[in-house]
Amino acid sequence: MGNRLPLILGLLAVVAFIVWSSIFVVNERQQAIVTRFGEIQDVKTEPGLYFKLPFGFVDADTVQYIEDRALRFDLENMRVQVSGGKFYEVDAFVLYKITNARLFRQTVSGDLASAESRLRTRLNSALRTVYGLRGFEAALSEERTSMMREVRDQLRPEAEALGLRIDDVRIRRTDLTQEVSQQTFERMKAERLAEAELIRARGNEAAQRIRAIADRQVVEIVSEATRDSEIIRGEGDGERNRIFAEAFQRDPEFFEFYRSMNAYAEALSDSGTTMVLSPTSEFFRYFGSAKGANAPAPAAPANAAPAAAAN
After folding, report:
1. Are 99 and 164 in contact (CB under 8 A)?
2. 305 — pLDDT class (breaks 50, 70, 90)
3. Strand ranges of the sheet holding 30-36, from the earlier edge strand across to the other edge
């Protein structure tokens, strides 16, 4: 029994090695391609535990693991020319997935770097084509979305030939080159200045139109007000004359007295005017008495002039 133990242990080790080498595990992020001397025998796309011919057997199987998740590669600092002759610097990336592992193995031997190199070349060409058909502002407008779709559609046939599926293409950055950026700034500045001048001219035109309308309305309003005031003044003067006429007819003496008092108030007010009148003048008739009889004039010196000064 003691001599058999090493043999049994050896047999168990061989069996364990054979079992271990015939088992492989595929997780949820992988696909497995089982090949036998380079020929594809099977493709495992579901996660789980699988068996293959162990190493050392005739026609032994080998397993190549392929990604079964969304992948991405980037294209950076690509210089593209638009239809107007200006240049952009573009960054883009592609989201893709390996959907046909068998074809992927047959075309690029399951090498992601080789597949991405071919896709990058095709992406470069597609971006140049799409940008070349458009003007300067297209990549900065809503047309950017349709541009990304066009690039994706142009990339898909090449990807399908490799066993890949293009899920999305995104233009991450679109910047002007330094020299074009300065030219663009100057052009946009000139456009904004021209637009400002146009708006200012329109504003001045509207202001002049409004001012002319306002001036016309002012003239019309003043004219109407002047006309109305003259009418009212005329009516007032007529009414005043009527009242004066009635008052004169009722008491002529009082009317004369009233008019004389008004004349005194206006003539003798502090106006700085000097008048030289005779004391016996008709103008001073009510100074002597309320009846209008002139008061006797005081005796004057023989050498004095018969005159009185009133201020």
Report:
1. yes
2. very low
3. 39-44, 30-36, 61-67
Residue 293: which residues within 8 A CB-CB, separation 6 or more? 285
Reported as type and span, the H/E element at residue 265 is helix 252-267
Q: Residue 10 corresponds to which tokens in the numbers above?
A: 């050896």
Do residues 5 and 77 touch, judged by C-beta distance below 8 A? no
Joined tokens for residue 269: 């007010």
Closest to 58 measured CA to CA, from 34, 37, 41: 37
Where are the strands (E) in the chain, listed by range? 23-26, 30-36, 39-44, 48-51, 61-67, 71-81, 87-98, 164-176, 275-277, 308-310
Non-local CB neighbours of 183 within 8 Å, separated by 6+ positions? 86
Record the tokens describing residue 79, joined without a space: 């210089």
Of 17, 54, 13, 18, nearest in space to 36 by CA: 54
168 bridge partner residues: 95
Residues 130, 169: Cα–Cα separation, whole Å: 13
pLDDT of residue 298: 44
Separation CA 280–CA 241 (nearest Å): 30
**35-91: pLDDT as tens digits:** 887 788 888 888 878 777 765 554 567 888 888 889 998 988 888 888 777 788 888
